[in-house]
Design a protein that fits this description.
Elements lengths: L3 E8 L6 H14 L8 H4 L3 E3 L6 E3 L2 E7 L2 H10 L9 E4 L1 H12 L6 H4 L15 H20 L5 E8 L1
Antiparallel strand pairs: 1-4, 1-6, 2-3, 5-6
Length: 164
Amino acid sequence: MGLDMFLNSRKKVEGYTQEDWDRVSEKFEEQYDKFNFGDLVEKAEVLKRGDDRFPYKSLTQEVSYWRKCNALHAWFVHNIQADEDDCGEYLVSKKTLEELLELLKKITKRNAKKLLPAQSGFFFGSTDYDEWYFNGVKETIDKLSTVIETFDFDNYELLYHSSW
């Protein structure tokens, strides 16, 4: 239980809007064999995930994961989700990740509260600017640097998603 945060990827499919994806993803995992997904299944990549005991199919693949990094979550909610903290999936552009990376590189003990303020919430973790906070910043710099450098932004989309 607590704040879990993900950057997931999915193949870009021409003509599909976020609303189309939302409608499909609601039914996809549970009703894959029963629901008519039209040409989406042919155009998108259907990924087999899980393990032998709990296999499932998905249209997304995890790229990065954080746990209880509430300041980063607050940044995504404010900058990507238009302040709607609703556990939805939101598109994240390369430019947005680059802007976040530059912000993270500027964070010090003196300016952390101003540049990337912690956010309290239901099992969101500590709001202190301590070792945990700064480890999260460093970890995120490393993760985002790798994603920006290696992710195929031409053929895939990134989505931010959180749950608690």
